[in-house]
Amino acid sequence: MNSPTPDTTAGAPEPELVDLRPATTAVVRGVVPMSDLRDFFDTSFGALARTVQAQRITLLSPAFGLYRGTPGATVDLEVGFVTDGEVRPEAGVVVGSLPGGRAARLTHAGSFDGLGASWERLRSWLQAQGLRAGEDRWETYVTQPSPDMDPADLRTLLSWPVAD
């Protein structure tokens, strides 16, 4: 007897369209092999913390990862925070921005391992709405991960701009 495939989207929030304002960011940029992604994030957050503290920059958002283009063996990304002003380039930290305009959004609940499925769900939703996804997209890490937390408690906001 075959068991039914579980519906991993049951009870999950629905995607939505939102209008976003552009935002100034402090970021570390890199083209990173997928296998080095975690180390890149860890190193970037250390540099960001030191730089924003030294420059007395106010963070206005949780951390995010902005992905440029489609990830493959490597990923072109920016890791950072929305800020109240421009950071002076220092120790690999530079000024960046998040785009304004229409974007599709979805909150992913759970482990980072499931992010690929949530991105696919958001892409499919955009297509079903007759909209075209932009080249870049980002994840906002609403809950800060810690070694002792239950991964089921993680929340990640996915934002995918709509191409004109």
TrEMBL record:
Give start and end of each AraC effector-binding domain.
13-163
InterPro entries documented for this protein: AraC_E-bd, GyrI-like, Reg_factor_effector_dom_sf
Q: What is this protein called?
A: GyrI-like domain-containing protein
Q: Which species is this UniProt entry from?
A: Kitasatospora paranensis
